[in-house]
Amino acid sequence: MTQIEKFQKFLDNHEIKYFDADEIFRRNPPEDLWENIIPTLRVLDKVRELIGSPIIVNSTYRDKEYNSRVGGEPNSLHLSFNAIDFSVKHISLYSIYKYILKMPDANSMGLGIYNTFIHADTRGVIGRPAPARWDERT
């Protein structure tokens, strides 16, 4: 079984409904970090259910080299496979951002909005200070 097939089984076992391994398993996240992404995916599953439209995953796991190359923060939660940058078509990112802020999970989250995507992580469940909010739109 390949790593991506193994990761798909992992997602299925965690009942992730709207995302598959092809979308999430990028840059080969180490298996010991896989659990870190599940709380974030559960939040985004709820968002996907609400909006009834696909969520486009822009970024998930980043190793240190790639994170540096794309200008990521040195302590980015992408490094621990806990963050997802995503976008949607035909729906205001700000309306999705506001919706997530009202979710019960919001108190454990880092949530940032940019011009073309939203960053979501569940930092509180892996021991990082939460909540964290930022708006980088210009």
Question: Can you walk through the features of this model?
Answer:
The protein has a single domain (3-135), classed as Muramoyl-pentapeptide Carboxypeptidase, domain 2 (2-Layer Sandwich). The protein contains five helices and five strands. It has helices at 3-13, 21-24, 34-51, 64-69, 93-102; strands spanning 55-59, 83-88, 110-113, 118-121, 132-135. It has a five-stranded mixed β-sheet with strand order 1-2-4-3-5, covered by helices on one side.
What secondary-structure arrangement, pairings included, does this model have?
Layout: H1 3-13, H2 21-24, H3 34-51, E1 55-59, H4 64-69, E2 83-88, H5 93-102, E3 110-113, E4 118-121, E5 132-135
Parallel strand pairs: 3-5
Antiparallel strand pairs: 1-2, 2-4, 3-4
Mean pLDDT: 96
What is the percentage of strand-forming residues? 15-25%
Summarize the amount of helix as a percent range: 25-40%
What is the helix/strand order?
HHHEHEHEEE
Quick one: how many beta strands? 5
Per CATH, the class reads Alpha Beta
**CATH-derived architecture:** 2-Layer Sandwich
* Computed structural class: alpha+beta
Rounded to the nearest angstrom, the distance between the terminal CA atoms is 45 Å
CATH topology: Muramoyl-pentapeptide Carboxypeptidase, domain 2
How would you write the strand order of the largest sheet?
Answer: 1-2-4-3-5
Contiguous runs where pLDDT drops below 50 for at least 5 residues: none
Number of helices: 5
Largest β-sheet summary: 5 strands, mixed
Radius of gyration: 14 Å
Instruction: State the domain count.
Output: 1
